[in-house]
Amino acid sequence: MSLRFLTGAASVALLAALAPVSPASAQVAAPAAAPAAAPAAPAHPSWNGITFSGHIEGGTNVNPDSPENNVNQGQLMTDRANSFRVNQVMLTAQKDIDPASSAFNWGFKLQGTYGTDARITHFFNEGDLWTNSPYQWDITEANLQAHLPIYFPGGMDVKIGQYSTPMGYEVIDATGNFFYTHSYIFNYGLPLKHTGVLTTSHVTDMIDVYAGFDMGNQASLPTRYGDNNATGAVLGGFGINNPIPNLTILALAHIGAENGYVKGTPATPGINGHSRQIYDVTSTYHVNDQLTVANEINFTKDDLFGATAEGTAFYGIYKWSDAWSFGARGEVYRDDQGFFVSSVGGSQDFVRLERANLLPTSAVYAAGPATYTELTLGANWAPALAFPSALPPSLGLTLRPEFRWDHAFSVGGNGNAFNMNSSGAFTKNDQFLLSVDAILAF
Question: What's the whole-model pTM score?
Answer without folding.
Answer: 0.88
